[in-house]
Amino acid sequence: MIFGKKRVFHSRQLMYKKGNNPMSNSKIQRACLKIPRDAVYAKFKQALTRRQFLTRSAMAAGAVVAPCLIPASALGRSGVVPPSERIVMGGIGMGGRGSYDLGWMLGEPDVQWVAVCDVLKSRRESAKSQVNAKYGNKDCAVYGDLREFLAERTDVDAVLIATGDRWHALASVMAMRAGKDVYCEKPACLTMAQGQMVVETARRYGRVYQTGAQRLSEPNHVFAIEMARSGRLGPIHTAYADIRWRDGMRHDWLPAEPEPPKSNLDWDVWLGPCPWRPYNSGYVNGGGWYHFYDFATDVAMWGAHTVAQALAGLDLSNVSYIEFPYDGPDATMMTRLSNGVRLVLFRVSGSVWEPCKYWHGACGERFDGPDGWAAAADGYERPDVSSPALLLEYKKVLAAYTARTQRQLNHARDFFDCVRSRRSTVANPEVMSRSMNICLAADICEQLKRGLKFDLNKAEFVDDAEANRLRSRAMRVPFAF
After folding, report:
1. Which class does domain 81-214 fall in?
2. Fold for domain 215-247+297-409+430-469?
3. CA-based, 20 to 30 A from 453: which of 60, 133, 184, 287?
4. What is the 3-state secondary structure (H, E, C) of the chain?
5. Average pLDDT of the chain?
């Protein structure tokens, strides 16, 4: 109603252009309110000839009788979700992964994309074209600075965050503070402190958050996880997570190059909370930033994909700490949980896509128990199991999971369903924070080159001040929490 009043008053103001009427806006309002309706009608009628009045009256009546043609899509017919029921969506970070997620989410019928944001002009324009092609219009708005996007787009319900890793946690916090639900790609944070801030912000503002550990919603991985969780393999004594991709180890930086025009790339915004470094195209082109500690993580680069999968199959209710041995670079970490279960962070030199003795694809997890083992990785038609008999329950296990959790085997769909229901997602902030803490603790173990003991409940290292100082990094002003 307020909006309607503003529009009506604005149209009245146009009749009293500056210089044509001495009355102020407030006087105009009072005058308009004081004029009796019948007097206005009579005055208007006198200004017309009888023929003009009858002609205009007939036209008005015809307008009332004539049918109003409303598109079926606006009414929700033919299976189309009406606009009032759609989740209004925006994207922040529209590079390779962002573009993939955008294509994935554009297929959801109850989601309407209205804006995209990327610091690189070429990427935001490409994403805009992708959205407009989907809807057959030119309506998608573009932004180069996520702060401007979050401030202006009060109509957006939820955002995809697929920036470089350096921005994941800060962008998530900023978006949730702005009233948005968040789907954030992994690794969801560079430090334990950043991950905890995401947890606290989601809790304080009542926002729905999903980290992009999508294998927690994929059938083969869910089957392997459920085989462990449900006891079908017996009490699990060993779980494995693939961390063969190692990066983010360089502590130097590239030489300065001339910065591109700010309209094409705002280098200050690209850096965000990271230390100031001179511009070099090697950071931006081809994802070169992956290799540098300033912008990335090491073990957590790949562990963010898989540690959450391994933890999902374990009973962590009585687990208080985890011990990290250090056996040198490129060595598999044979960590041990306080309940005696071994969590093997599998790592050898070579490609992450090469077959290994635990699985034959990338991003694998495996669970070993006295009654057998189950494993899954990317590219599987069906999970690997110790006995073909275990696969006879494949459909039964998945059906039991969906019935128990009321979740679909689709990670983006789980997010959107939770946006509507306001319940917690499968990869909620607590799931993200715990798995990232283990990954980042492994990173710190690598940095210090010695064994560590980490308290999972307190999120701190036991009796180790040096290690605890590495749980956070300085964030550059003004890009800070």
Report:
1. alpha beta
2. Dihydrodipicolinate Reductase; domain 2 (3.30.360)
3. 184
4. CHHHHHHHHHHHHHHCCCCCCCCCHHHHHHHHHHCCHHHHHHHHHHCCCHHHHHHHHHHHHHHHHCCCCCCHHHHCCCCCCCHHHCEEEEEECCCHHHHHHHHHHHCCCCEEEEEEECCEHHHHHHHHHHHHHHHCCCCCEEECCHHHHHHHCCCCCEEEECCCHHHHHHHHHHHHHCCCEEEECCCCCCCHHHHHHHHHHHHHHCCCEEECCHHHHCHHHHHHHHHHHCCCCCCCCEEEEECCCCCCCECCCCCCCCCCCCCCECHHHHHCCCCCCCCCHHHHHHHHHHHECCCCCCCHHHHHHHHHHHHHCCCCCCCCEEEECCCCCCCCEEEEECCCCEEEEECCCCCCCCCCCCCCCCCCEEEEECCEEEEECCCCCCCEECCHHHHHHHHHHHHHHHHHHCCCCCHHHHHHHHHHHCCCCCCCHHHHHHHHHHHHHHHHHHHHCCCEEEECCCCEECCCHHHHHCCCCCCCCCCCC
5. 87
